[in-house]
Specification:
Layout (H helix, E strand, L loop, with lengths): L5 E3 L2 E3 L3 E3 L8 H8 L24 E4 L2 E4 L8 H14 L6 E4 L4 H13 L5 E5 L15 H11 L7 E5 L5 H11 L6 E4 L3 E5 L1 E2 L2 E2 L7 E5 L4 H14 L5 E5 L5 H9 L4 E4 L1 H6 L2 H17 L16
Parallel strand pairs: 3-15, 6-7, 7-8, 8-9, 9-14, 14-15
Antiparallel strand pairs: 1-2, 4-5, 5-13, 10-13, 11-12
Helix pairs in contact: 4-5, 5-6, 7-9
The chain binds ligand RRO.
InterPro entries: Aldolase_TIM (IPR013785), DHO_dehydrogenase (IPR050074), DHOD_1A (IPR033886), Dihydroorotate_DH_1 (IPR024920), Dihydroorotate_DH_1_2 (IPR012135), Dihydroorotate_DH_cat (IPR005720), Dihydroorotate_DH_CS (IPR001295)
Main location: cytoplasm
GO molecular function: dihydroorotate dehydrogenase (fumarate) activity
Length: about 300
């Protein structure tokens, strides 16, 4: 029997596949649909303190090799997602779900996290340090000083299981510097990667999304090599208590297999879920299990992180 069960942050999940934040997670109805699919869990759309309408449309476009988006952090506000998660704690006490969040300023991030800390929420929390699409706001995790300050402040009061969503890094020195910072904190996981920020896609001499004159985060097939590199770079550098979620370019079971081979304990599906719908979870689950069966692996720990190098 092949199992793709996993553990993350001390919790168990019967499937290591789930949605990536931003896809199928804006409303309770979408979240319930992911919950009731074969996915192991769900993560909410990144919540800010208050409702946000986000950027003007069109703000997401599927393209042949992936997607481009500049959504601008549209979401229902923290209370909406927190209320739903608390409701699920009553109705589905044996499952664990993930709340994604970030403030529009460090103060707002602390306000949100203090509310989560004070609540009865007992699941996982993902702090999004990598939104590329709010005009005038740089991706937090590209500023190492600010990132360290925020994490230092957060862990002075926050005691619940917390991980961070990271942008892709592109330089070995940046992997070293970022990992040295993350290793100072009791993080449960890092999630590699958010979309590759500020790409530009053109059709008929025109951009394909309206905000930011067409600049937007790139997802899908384009980004798998970058995602795998980030997963593996952090797997090599982080203390073992900090697990890795692999996100980026998962179209097939083979892609999920490669993320796990690079060290991922959980694998998230974004653009493919947007393009294909919930059936993607079943298909990719079956493809991943078939690859494992063929190779004689019974569980994901049999090959997780075991990427082979050349001599
Ligand atoms: O809402 C967005 O524009 C968005 C976010 Br918060 C994010 O983290 N990543 C992304 O590609 N889009």
């Amino acid at each position: 029997m092949v199992s793709i069960a996993t553990r993350l942050g001390g919790f168990s999940f019967d499937n290591c596949l789930m949605n990536a934040a931003g896809v199928w997670c804006m409303t309770k109805e979408e979240l319930a649909a992911v919950k009731d699919s074969v996915a192991g869990t769900f993560v909410t759309k990144t919540a800010t303190l208050d409702y946000r309408a986000g950027n003007p449309e069109p703000r997401y476009q599927n393209v042949p090799l992936g997607s481009i988006n500049s959504m601008g952090l549209p979401n229902q506000g923290l209370a909406y997602y927190l209320d739903y998660l608390l409701e699920l704690q009553e109705t589905e006490p044996n499952r664990t779900f993930v709340l994604s969040l970030v403030g529009m300023s460090p103060d707002e991030t602390h306000e949100i996290l203090r509310r989560v800390e004070a609540s009865d929420f007992n699941g996982l929390i993902e702090l999004n340090l990598s939104c590329p699409n709010v005009p005038g706001k740089p991706q937090i995790a590209y500023d190492f000083e600010t990132t360290e300050t925020i994490l230092h402040e957060v862990f002075s009061y926050f005691t619940k299981p917390l991980g961070i969503k990271l942008p892709p890094y592109f330089d070995i020195v940046h992997f070293d510097q970022a990992a040295a910072i993350f290793n100072k904190f009791p993080l449960k996981f890092v999630n590699c990667v958010n979309s590759i920020g500020n790409g530009l896609y053109i059709e008929d001499e025109q951009v394909v999304i309206k905000p930011k004159n067409g600049f937007g985060g790139i997802g899908g097939e384009y980004i798998k090599p970058t995602a795998l590199a980030n997963v593996h770079a952090f797997y090599q550098r982080l203390k073992p208590e900090i697990q890795i979620i692999g996100t980026g370019g998962v179209l097939t079971g083979r892609d999920a297999f490669e993320h796990i081979l690079c060290g991922a304990s959980m694998v998230q599906i974004g653009t493919t879920l947007q393009k294909e719908g919930l059936a993607a979870f079943e298909r990719i689950t079956e493809e991943l299990q078939a690859i494992m069966a063929e190779k004689g692996y019974e569980k994901i720990e049999d090959f997780r992180g075991k990427l082979r190098y050349m001599d």
